[in-house]
Design goal:
With 315 residues, the protein is of the alpha+beta class. The chain has nine helices and eleven strands. The strands form two sheets. Strands 1, 2, 3, 4, 5, 6 and 7 form a seven-stranded mixed β-sheet that branches. A four-stranded antiparallel β-sheet has the order 9-10-8-11. Strand 3 and strand 4 form a beta hairpin. The structure holds (3R)-3-hydroxy-3-methyl-5-(phosphonooxy)pentanoic acid.
Length: 315
Amino acid sequence: MAITQTSAPGKIILFGEHAVVYGRPAIAAPVTQVRATATVEDSPDTGLRLRAPDIRRDYWLRQASEGDPFAKAVRAFLGQAGLTEELPLIVTIHSTIPIASGLGSGAAMAAAVIRALAQHLGRPDLAQNGQVSAMTFQVEQLLHGTPSGIDNTVVSFERPVYFVRQQPANRIETLTIGTPLSFLIADTGIASPTKVAVGDVRREWQAQTAHFERLFDACGRVAQAARQAMERGEVDQIGGLMTENQAYLREMTVSSPELERLIHAAEEAGALGAKLSGGGRGGNMIALVTPADQGVVQAALLDAGARAVLSTVLV
Ligand code: PMV
């Protein structure tokens, strides 16, 4: 029986998280070392069976709730393709992306599932990056409340992107990186659902609109400057802009003592810049390092309490 397998990467937000929800530019990049992998195979039984063995789940789509993100990914595809929930298929998902930690695990799961279904069912039109991204966005809405669209974009295109949320269509530009950039990604070990942080920022923005608009503007300027610096390969400049972005995120109340400890440790150990990445409050922070300092910064992060440290190079 035919089996189709596809995968999608994790992601980091380099600049502009939160402000991107309010229409300011942001930059995100794939993290190819961690991935969600989806398998679709024909089944002898009627009905779509969903399997997530990593979390010991095995159930029927028809029994899945509306709030189930895995089921939502499958339903987004079926809706777009005009197909029923009773197709005789087994969809299995595995992931090495830590959940609720700002690495885009939900978006990667959805993108992998949607692309695998499209390929398996002979719908190459629906396996195109833009289509996969649009369907993945529907799952992000469930996970995030009011997602900007940046996560589904970067995991579907698997390229560094400069992204602006706007009507009628988001501005999505893939970036050319002037010189390879080495990042360390350190996990605070604290799970922090993005939806909560995004909701809290919205409440703060409603209470102090002028102040938050200024913070969002500042993040947008940083993202614009960072884009130029990345394209030109100005590594020191990029590091400085990360540190500046972190100051604005701190003011937005989305940092945390654990994130601050790791950021401080990375900077003390010679990182060129460091900041939280994604929703914040917990999850991961990122540090820009030179290849020469990478080992020392990694050790400092582990000493300061990081649960795990990944490295990734953007080229
Ligand atoms: O926490 P993550 O990695 O899913 O990133 C969310 C990024 C935000 O800007 C906070 C929200 C969004 O939808 O863009």
